[in-house]
Specification:
By secondary structure, this protein is an all-alpha fold. The chain folds into 2 domains: 285 residues, no CATH class; 158 residues, no CATH class. Helices cover 80% and strands 1% of the residues. The chain is built from 23 helices and 2 strands. A two-stranded antiparallel ribbon has the order 1-2. β1 and β2 form a beta hairpin. α1 runs parallel beside α9 and α3 packs across α14.
């Protein structure tokens, strides 16, 4: 089992290079934006990108997941047929969806609250959607074939080009938020061009319509499910905008971005986890392996959460230039949402752990129920708490929805693919996290959190894990030795 965990850890580390380095380079745009763009424009940009997230789901309609499911079970020419059918069909529908969006530009722009002065952003939006979609299945193929280094290289190129163009277009050409969209479009288009050899090497100019029906049957349930999941991720933006204003949304979104560090960890795990459990589902000790991985994931995520919770404000307020902080000073009033967002991403990682059973047993039809429940909870809690707690209420809505989604997916996964998780350890870890979070906010709003208090909380948190025997000394030593042997 250790060798399997080592394999997952190695892939996670390689995907982590593109994810961490790439997203971290992208994160440089947050201090850049918040120091050169006002809160109102940042709110407008955030709102449009929320709709971009929704439309991304519509354009791919679960076909990337269907491709990974069936391609993982085949090799050689049969695998190329699966790639070809999936890719050609997605390319055709992407063209049709793009044309449809252009046809309904005026009414849809009003729904998105894009003013006439920003109407050109709509065209960038459509083109970004198209190029991102036609790259998804080639990227999925790289993951499935464990070409992690190539995957990493292409992703990094996308991020670096995007980052560079943002600086050039904003600072030299003074293009404002239009620069964000133009840079994204250029990076997406060039990324697609880089993947063309990968596409040509795997494609056969033929669609197998009988197989396509099977892929659609598997993938289409992801459309409502993924839309609901996207609601969980981004619906807070239009809701905050509707209940407050563009400036408040800008402040909220800038601080939400600080959750990136937990999101990075969860994302790199997810990239490696999906092909890992598909490839190891038939192993004799698969369920025991999956159980141990959840425990190890939660231990790692918990340590990331406590460190970031305690010290993220110090990071955000750091001045890299006189008067220029990591998060622009006019945005810093929203820093209190960050520990909540970090915890929400932790539960998102737990949710991804529970996906194994649903995938393996082909029970994707339950995704809409799970994500739908999370989406409804998000909207309801947003409406209830934003008037009372402001943007802290929006952050709590995100946390509530991820908890409900993790619980729902656990229920359905256990029904069809029961795994005996280490419940005692998991419960103890979550209990320590919530008690620590409550104590953190009590101290924050009463006596304040000095550096001494922060280190005392940190040592107390780690000590609690050792005291309740969540982490065994021999397990720590064994895992460290295993990680040191990864090449």
């Amino acid at each position: 089992m250790l060798e399997k965990i080592k394999e997952l850890t190695k892939d996670t580390a390689i995907y982590g290079i593109s994810t961490i380095v790439g997203r971290f380079l992208g994160f440089f745009l947050v201090p850049f934006y918040t120091n050169v763009i006002n809160t109102r424009d940042y709110g407008i940009y955030s709102n449009i990108y929320a709709y971009l997230a929704f439309l991304n789901i519509v354009f791919i309609y679960g076909m990337d997941s269907a491709f990974m499911k069936y391609a993982s079970q085949n090799e050689g020419m049969e695998k190329k047929k699966i790639f070809s059918t999936s890719y050609i069909f997605v390319s055709i529908t992407s063209v049709l969806f793009s044309l449809a969006l252009l046809f309904i530009k005026n009414p849809f722009s009003e729904v998105m609250e894009i003013s006439s002065s920003y109407s050109n952003l709509y065209y960038y939006l459509v083109l970004i959607l198209f190029f991102d979609t036609v790259a998804l299945i080639p990227f999925a193929n790289l993951r499935l074939e464990r070409k992690a280094l190539k995957f990493t290289s292409v992703k990094l190129f996308n991020i670096i080009l995007n980052l560079t163009l943002n600086f050039v277009l904003v600072l030299k050409f003074k293009m404002g938020i239009e620069a964000i969209f133009l840079a994204n479009l250029a990076a997406s288009a060039f990324t697609f061009l880089i993947l063309v050899p990968e596409i040509i090497g795997n494609i056969i100019l033929k669609i197998d319509y009988a197989q396509l029906k099977k892929y659609l049957k598997f993938g289409l349930p992801y459309l409502p499910a993924s839309l609901a999941a996207t609601v969980v991720q981004v619906v807070d933006r239009p809701v905050v905008l509707a209940m407050t204003n563009e400036s408040t949304l800008g402040i909220y979104q800038a601080n939400y971005k600080l959750g990136i560090f937990m999101m990075l960890f969860v994302s790199m795990f997810q990239y490696a986890w999906q092909p890992f459990f598909l490839n190891n589902a038939k192993e004799k000790n698969a369920k025991e392996l999956f159980s141990k991985i959840l425990t190890l994931f939660l231990i790692a995520a918990s340590m990331i959460w406590i460190v970031l919770t305690l010290f993220v404000e110090d990071f955000a307020r750091f001045e890299f230039l006189p008067g220029k902080s990591i998060i622009g000073k006019e945005f810093l009033s929203g820093i209190t949402i960050v520990p909540i967002i970090l915890l929400a991403y932790l539960f998102n990682g737990i949710y991804y752990n529970f996906q194994a059973g649903i995938y393996i047993e082909e029970k994707t039809k339950y995704y809409p129920y799970v994500t739908g429940a999370g989406a409804v909870a998000n909207v309801v809690v947003n409406i209830l708490l934003i008037p009372l707690l402001g943007i802290n209420g929006a952050a709590l809505a995100t946390l509530a929805s991820y908890i409900i989604m993790a619980a729902g997916l656990y229920f359905f996964s256990q029904k069809y693919y029961p795994v005996k998780y280490e419940y005692a350890k998991i419960f103890k870890m979550l209990l320590v996290i919530f008690i620590t979070a409550a104590f953190y906010y009590y101290m924050y709003y009463t006596v304040g959190l000095t550096m001494i208090y922060k280190f005392l909380i940190l040592f107390g948190f780690i000590g609690s894990f050792l005291l309740i025997k969540v982490v065994e000394k021999n397990e720590v030593i064994r895992m460290i030795k295993m990680l040191l042997r990864i090449k």
